[in-house]
Amino acid sequence: MGTGYVGTTTALTLCELGHQVIGYDVDPLKIASLQNKNLHFYEPGLKDLLVKHLHSGNIRFTENIKQAVQQSEIIFICVGTPQNDDGSANLEYVQQAATMIGNYLNNYKVIVNKSTVPVGTAEKVTKWIHDSMVSPIQYDVISNPEFLKEGTALADSLNPERIVIGSHSEKATDKMKNLYSKFKTTFVHTTPQTAELIKYAANSFLATKISFINEIARLCENVNVDVKDVAFGIGLDSRIGSSFLQAGIGYGGSCFPKDVLALLSTAQQNNTNLSLLEKTYSINNTQPFYFIEKIKNKLKDIKGKNIAILGLSFKPHTDDIRESPALKIIEELYKQSANIFVHDPVAKLPKILSQKITQIHSIHSLPENTDALIICTDWPEYETFDWLQVKQKMRNPYIFDGRNMLNASNMTKLGFYYDGIGYRQ
Ligand code: UGA
């Protein structure tokens, strides 16, 4: 239930494991698109698998909830859990899904919470199903959080580093073990509450690693050190690990910003002060503005300057712009009356911004007299641009690399003024 990134990737992964899957969504347009072999979002590799399994017959999509529920042994709830105004997770769609399951439950089933949900949600889902059931039927609700990343969703899902199963029922656990029996990985068996917290703690820890290195990057700039060297040096320690130590303009996307706030909200509701996580959040909020300050210091006055933004999505290999730090930078520069041009290989400007800002489809369409280029997303193709040609279009050959992706000394040799995050000038 729910055919977004998580639902569709989970469905196709299960097909690869040899299972029969039915995809259901409340949005008929999404179902129609999937039935027609089209994804309604960009995710590398997923479309090929969709075509393969529509052909193999392992997957089908339906708008008929009764059939979807009644013909399944295991039901995955993969719907969104957006953010409430107070930062807590909104369980409206999870409740809707649970109610529909209750309405049509016809025999024993395992209901799996795949959506990222706060501690205690499995219990709530159990109750919502119970309250909407027509006649008493046995079922179990378990938690099986997802750890896939957008952009590499398929590879992550097909090669999980661990599978967490939070269940009070031996019968349900056995069914899940059986479902995933082809995976050679570590299975972590816990209570549903523990599994729910593992998901939030994992995302919050990764977000904290990013905010940590972003704060160290600020220090690096004041003590003439390159943060990339520091990240490399500490990352070789296996207790620290090298991943998620790339300094930049902050984390975005549909997960970290929302999940950090939701965990803070859970902590508050349970009289716990997560002060480290509060800092993670505030450092991330200030990071794009910290970067803009550097740009302002160099350009002096932003007003009327021609500024090109490279990258709109919150990370490469996705068209997702939710909570993208690029948007914060664009909005701030717009407020300061810059002329902004945006490039992204796949992501599109939201409607509200596309009326005010121009999206260019090739770097060759850069305006004459460009005053600065700002890299907001580390799309690999930016590494291989013909930078000399780009330079010819620029009034001021300034590059501000918000993802530290280019080689600083090469860019300087080409005649650019280059600045990154935590970079020694
Ligand atoms: C994240 C987690 O990494 C997944 O494990 C989790 O399953 C997923 O959320 C989820 O909860 O559904 P995702 O948001 O797709 O995955 O993307 P990430 O690769 O984690 O990147 C998040 C943000 O952090 C991006 O804006 C990225 O640019 C930024 N980032 C990442 C850094 O600034 N520095 C780094 O070193 C790594």
Radius of gyration: 24 Å
Structural class: alpha/beta
CATH topology of the largest domain: Rossmann fold
How large a portion of the residues is in β-strands, by DSSP E?
5-15%
| Strand adjacency order, main sheet | 10-9-8-11-12-13
Query: Number of DSSP helices?
Result: 16
Low-confidence stretches: none
- Order of SSEs, N→C? HEHHEHEHEHEHEHEHHHHEHEHEEHEHE
Task: Please estimate the helix content.
Answer: 40-55%
CATH class of the largest domain: Alpha Beta
- Number of strand elements: 13
The total domain count is 2
Q: Compute the average pLDDT.
A: 96
> Strand count, sense and closure of the main sheet?
6 strands, parallel
What report would you give on this structure?
This protein is an alpha/beta fold. It has 2 domains: 5-190, 3-Layer(aba) Sandwich (Rossmann fold); 191-425, 3-Layer(aba) Sandwich (Rossmann fold). Helices cover 44% and strands 13% of the residues. The protein has helices spanning 5-16, 28-35, 46-56, 65-70, 92-104, 121-132, 153-158, 170-179, 192-223, 227-235, 256-269, 275-299, 325-335, 351-354, 387-392, 408-413, and strands spanning 21-24, 59-62, 74-77, 109-113, 139-143, 162-166, 186-190, 306-310, 339-343, 358-360, 372-375, 398-401, 417-419. Strand 12 (398-401), helix 16 and strand 13 (417-419) form a beta-alpha-beta unit. Helix 5 (92-104) packs across helix 6 (121-132), helix 9 (192-223) crosses helix 11 (256-269) and helix 11 packs antiparallel against helix 12 (275-299). The model has no long low-confidence stretch (mean pLDDT 96). The structure holds uridine-5'-diphosphate-glucuronic acid. The site of uridine-5'-diphosphate-glucuronic acid (UGA) has 20 residues, from helix 9. The site of uridine-5'-diphosphate-glucuronic acid has 20 residues, from helix 9. Residues 308-408 form the UDP-glucose/GDP-mannose dehydrogenase C-terminal domain. The active site is at 255 (nucleophile). NAD(+) binds at residues 25, 30, 81, 116, 150, 258, 322.
